[in-house]
Each structure stands twice: as structure tokens, then as C-alpha cells.
Amino acid sequence: MATVPEESAAIATVPGTIEKREELARQLSSRQLAMIAIGGAIGTGLFLGSSLAVRAAGPGVIITYLLGAVVALLFMGALSEMAVAHPTAGSFGVYAELYLSPWAGFVIRYSYWMAQCIAIGGEATAVAIYCQWWFPGTPKWIWIVGFSAALVYVNSRSVGIFGEFEYWFAMIKVVAIICFIVFGVAVLGGFGPAPATGLRNFTAYDGFLPRGLKGVWMALVYVIFSYIGTEVVAVTAGDAREPEKAVPKAMRSMVGRLILFYIGAIVVLIGLFPWNQIQPGADVTASPFVRVFQWIGIPAAAHIVNFVVITAAASSMNCNLYLVTRMIFSLSRGGYAPAVFGRLSKRGTPQNALLISTAGLAVATVVALLYPESAYVYLFGIALFGALFVWLMIFLTHLAFRRKWDELGRPRLPVRMIGYPYTSILGAAVLLAIILTTWWAEGMRPALLAGLPWLAFISAVYFLIVKKRQPAASR
Prior knowledge:
The protein is an all-alpha fold. It has a single domain (4-474), classed as Amino acid/polyamine transporter I (Up-down Bundle), CATH 1.20.1740. The protein has helices at 4-11, 16-22, 30-41, 51-57, 61-85, 91-99, 102-134, 140-156, 159-188, 212-227, 232-236, 243-272, 288-295, 301-333, 351-370, 375-407, 422-437, 446-469.
């Protein structure tokens, strides 16, 4: 098992203990890191409309996205500081193990692994639906197996190949979003067949805050998931060249781009369409992106957007598969999973961890296909809870990290959380409030109904099985 006191003692000298424990190849550049994070954070939701958030807040959802951006900035500030100190594939799970407790490191990594496997299963099912739009009558499983096999192959190669592949995957999404914003602004100004709408839609339907400030807060429950996925940069620190330079640079550029893309896109969306007419659903032809491209005169707009949506889903799958592989690898190297999952291939990739993670996403995909209205709802609830729980624990870990780091007199890190400890406390309080609010948010109640039993189960596994096997010194 991971000997936490020994690791903690190593903090006072050199954080290389964890790196030696992992021995991963370091091939990712800061250019690749930033795009990998965007690939993990931007899925299909933005392209098909953030309808639940818009329905909850109306035009006030713009304020919600700004609030979400503030939380994301606080989160990335805390995480980047720890990632520079300890560039490891286990990332926030290892930080929690070192600075909170072995239980925290165990629960965070397994919860994150489970959440991301479920998310990949959902994205795989989405890819099949979008492919069927082009090829009706084809069975979903063909597309799921085909895309999954291709992405498993990419992840089995060297991490440099994965990074370059994800870079261009994410670039397609970035170009599509920029085009939407530019073309949308042009349409707002009267370019194209439709008359200029100007700023009318921001206040024409019951004002800018039709649901009041309560609606702005309720929408934050949905909006925060737009920023979840940015933590991938901290995980890639274990594979990054010069992580002390590459990680903070990638985090700064990535957060700035996400804020620009999300807020820019949502402002254009609200400006072009009456907020009470934006409907949920996975119909590509109803996507705001399609309508804007059609207005601007681009032929085959629906086909272009369908390609972008498929790419977005595949990119998210690819990035999340990388994440879950590193989580299991880290658990194995720390002694919390079978040793076989901690072995590296000749290319320096955790091949066995990839295979077990692939099995996990296969189970999630099958459940999503066969039981979309029953069993998968609870799996999805675990994914929702797991993502929010991990963010909450990262803020708490940062509080413990800074206290211990300063007590030991370690040198000042090149990246520092502004406003510590108040900003970390604020971030943790907001995340806790969001988790509690899921009980009242439309479609989000399974987060607590399934997430809390999952937390109890995985904690029981740790205390009844794992902890008893640990040496006394590591408890």
C-alpha cells in the first residue's frame, strides 16, 4: 500500500517520490495540454443547445455562465498549484491521499474512474445516434464498437500520439464555436436573409431575469458541468514535458478560452433565439449552430454540424478514456488496485489499466443502450455526484496542501492560489451548495439518490477491506 507518512516526509525534501512510483513517459507539450483540456470539457451539449440551463434562468443564464467561470478559475488556481508541486498521473487523487487521508485518495480516484466510465458510455451512445442520422437503419452497436475500438487503439499508442490526435480533435470544436460566434454576431447585426434582432431577445420575454436570481442559481447546477473536465490538465502533468512550466501555462490559456467560448456562444444564442423557444433534445437539425449556418448561407449546414457533434463526442470519449486509464494506473501504483494494472507497455503507456477501463465503459454503454430509463439513470446519477464530489474534495485538499507546504518551509511555488485560504473556502462552499441543490434541479435528483449510496459503498470497501490490509504505519 502507499505509505502516506513516507510520502509526506518526502514533501519536505523532493516531490519526486510519486514520479518514481509512476515512471510515465513525459511527451506532452503545453500546446497539447491546453487543447486536451478543451477536448475533455467541451462535449456535445454546447452544440445541441444548453437548454436546461436556459430554461432555468432565461437570458440570466449569461450571469450563470459568468459565475461558473469564476468557480472554474478558483478551481484551476487550486489545482494548478498542487499539480506543479506534484506532477503525477494520479493527480488530485494522490494529493488527497497525501494531504487529507488514504481514504480520501481511494474514494476520489475510484469515484472519478466510475464517473468518467459512465460518461464515456453516454458519449458512445450519442455517437451512435448521430451516425444513425446519416445512416438510418444501421444498428447502434456497430458505431459504438467501431469508435470505441479506434479510441482504445489511439490510447494504446505512445502518449505523444494521443496528445496530437486529441489536439486536432479539439481544434475542430474550437473552429466550429468561433464560426458560430462570428456568424451569430453577423446575423444579430442584420447580415443574411433574417432581419437584425439586435438586443431585443435579451429582455423581450419577461425581462432579463424572468426566473429571478433563484433561476440564475438553479441554472448553475447545469452550467458547472460545462467546466467539469478541465481537471484533465492536472492528470496530464504526469505525462507532460517540463510540467512546472507546461501545466500552469496550459491551465491559464485553457480557462480563458473556455470562458470566451461558453460566454460568447451563450450570448449569441440568447440574442438570436427567444429563450422560451429553445427546446431540449438531440435533434441535430434543431441545433442553434445549424440554424445560424443556414442563415449565413452555408450549404449542408446540418451535415457539417453533425460531423462536428460526432467529433466532439469522440474527442470527449478519447480524453476521458485517457483519464480513467491514469486513475486506475495510479491506484495500482499506490497499492489500491491489483499490481497488474500498474504495468507499462514498451511504449510507456499503462496498457492493462486501459483494458480494464475499456471493460468499465463497455458495461456503462450496454446499460445505457438496454436500460436508458431505469438502471442508467442511477449510473448517470453516480457520474453527476462523482464529478461534483471530486471538485469539492480538490478544494478541501488544497486547503490542507497549502497549510502543510507552508509549515514545512518549502520554497514558494511559481503558481499560487490568489486569496488563499478564503478563495479555496469559497470554492468548497459553492460546490457543496451545488451538490445539495441537485435535489431540486430538473433531472438532477439522481445525483444524490445514487451518489450518496455509492459514496457509502466505496467507503465501506475501504474501511472493511482495504484499510485492514494496509501496514499500520500507512493508516
